[in-house]
């Protein structure tokens, strides 16, 4: 069974690169500070607030917003929320990095990945020029959700196996038709139109640390399609070891 992949190709930079970029305006480098100070700086860049301020925020959340000054507690809570929402991350130091990953995913998942444009570029294989037999992705079919369609899907479909067999036959028929068109002299750029959505696509994906963290945060969310959640996890396994402190600061646990 063909699986999605995210494989390391190359990278530039590390956590020290982020710190040095941030301190450039002061003319100092990471060596002038302790590892703990450098870590605190990375957290500040990512959160937009200092560690001390984070502690105060958490304390405020624990205490709550009961008014002691004749001000409605909801007004206090909303102001607190607005203050948090408007905190600006200092994102540019994270952008002085680069990671290249070899990706493979079925067409609809690739399309979701390509929606992430800021800080990312891709070069994709083209069926106009390659003639290898396309691979297909075989999913585990899930049931339609009982509630809002925005929830994506439910658990494993009770007829999963028979649907999977039918899907496999359908995809193989499309691939056979594609290869038949090629043999009959149809232009590859048109023959590819019969390929099923389950066809796998390979591409090189390069971007900065912040861009990949943004992709991970959005696509690892429980509301995202399961297949792209799985792909986001594969991306994490590539990027996190390269920038462990920065990745931890930029992403949701």
TrEMBL record:
Enzyme class: transferase
GO molecular function: flavin adenine dinucleotide binding; NADPH binding; thymidylate synthase (FAD) activity; thymidylate synthase activity
Gene3D superfamilies in the cross-refs: 3.30.1360.170
A Pfam family assignment: Thy1
Keywords, comma-separated and alphabetical: Methyltransferase, Transferase
Segments traversing the membrane: none
InterPro entries in the record: Thymidylate_synthase_ThyX (IPR003669), Thymidylate_synthase_ThyX_sf (IPR036098)
Official protein name in the record: FAD-dependent thymidylate synthase
Species annotation: Rouxiella silvae
Lineage summary: Bacteria, Pseudomonadati, Pseudomonadota, Gammaproteobacteria, Enterobacterales
């Amino acid at each position: 069974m063909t699986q999605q992949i995210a494989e390391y190709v190359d990278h530039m930079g590390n956590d020290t690169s982020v710190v040095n970029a941030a301190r450039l305006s002061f003319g100092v480098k990471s060596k002038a500070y302790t590892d703990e100070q450098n870590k605190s700086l990375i957290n500040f860049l990512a959160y937009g607030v200092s560690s001390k301020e984070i502690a105060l925020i958490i304390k405020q959340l624990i205490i709550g917003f009961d008014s002691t000054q004749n001000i409605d507690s909801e007004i206090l809570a909303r102001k607190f929320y607005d203050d948090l929402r408007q905190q600006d991350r200092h994102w540019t130091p994270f952008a002085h990095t680069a990671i290249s990953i070899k990706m493979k995913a079925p067409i609809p998942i690739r399309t979701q990945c390509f929606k992430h444009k800021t800080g990312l570029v891709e070069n994709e294989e083209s069926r106009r020029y390659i003639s290898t037999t396309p691979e297909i992705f075989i999913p585990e079919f899930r049931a339609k959700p009982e509630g809002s369609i925005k929830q994506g899907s439910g658990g494993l479909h009770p007829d999963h196996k028979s649907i999977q067999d039918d899907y496999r036959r359908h995809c193989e028929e499309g691939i056979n038709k594609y290869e038949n068109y090629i043999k009959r002299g149809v232009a590859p750029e048109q023959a590819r139109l019969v390929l099923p959505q389950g066809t796998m696509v390979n591409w090189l994906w390069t971007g900065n640390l912040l861009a990949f963290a943004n992709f991970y945060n959005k696509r690892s969310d429980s509301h995202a399609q399961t297949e792209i959640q799985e792909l986001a996890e594969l991306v994490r396994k590539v990027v996190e070891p390269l920038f462990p402190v920065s990745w931890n600061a930029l992403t949701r646990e």
